[in-house]
Amino acid sequence: MATAKSFSTPILFISFLLLASCLSSASETKIKANVTIANGLAYGFYRYICPQVEVLVRSYLRQVFSRDVGQAAGLLRLHAHDCFVQGCDGSVLLDRSIERTELPNLSLRPQSFQIIEALRQIIHSRCGRVVSCSDILTLAARDSVFFTGGPDYAVPLGRRDGVTFPRPNQTFEDLVAPFAKTTEILTKFARKNLNAVDSVALSGAHTIGIGHCDSFKERIFPNRDPTMEISFFNRLRQVCPAPETDAATWLDIRSPNRFDNLYFVDLMNRQGVFTSDQDLFEDPRTRGIVVSFASRQRLFFKNFAVAMTKMGIVDVLTDAQGEIRARCNVRNSDNINDLESVVEKDMGSSSAMI
Length: 354
Known about the structure:
single chain; mainly alpha; heme; disulfide bond; EC 1.11.1.7
């Protein structure tokens, strides 16, 4: 498996970040976005039926990130890919969905799916089957931001899990490719009722995570993209000496495992990895937003919390529109069908023995 190669910028001590996060008061007020939420969602939705759900998620993820903080970026990306394709319904978690096998989702981390299922088992063992997988994924994404140093924000809950699969090629239609220009980014985000500020803020999630050579090779082969700073180009060519190289690099060279605003500083220095990153600074429609976020981290955090809340309510299912899955990777109807198939097979075997 490709691993990210570090540049000369020292990596911050992750244990310190986790300790700082843990020392934050549990009662500290979270950022609450001034956003109209979908009918059926509510802040404190599980107050009476599973009041400990957020504590359970945060406690488990603290353990996960203490072992491998890189999983935070994987969970954040999984949530975004879920919401942009058919809404935040947990469809990306389904094993049988074509969504999982299409190119844009092939690089989703297998561990991310395992973490969500582990969380479901913990929560359902404590509260019963009352919390949806899509809500668990939403909380995991929020806490991935929190534990890496980003804002802590309130999320409305009450989503139901989807029972339908996206249509073929929907991932290509809805997700932003790493080689996309700003016009395409703004267009795809607008379809989800996300504006230019939301688009730039959500792109700031690339302050953590990695990018594979195949995702930015057109910027360094055969020649340097003119919007890329020369020393940064030379460093990327060291990581990816050939177009077919299977390697990865940090998306934010200044603080790769810390959620902060230095990603935007990277863009101003023309050190963005993807075209979809760097073009946000090159395009006059979004350059001012990049500059404002680069100079004011608190502003970025506030707008990121708003944008995540808006993204998290895209085309959600509530109440009878969906279900609460017994397993995050399988629809309940498929669970029943699989069980019936096993029973029929066992009965057939028994009959043959008579």
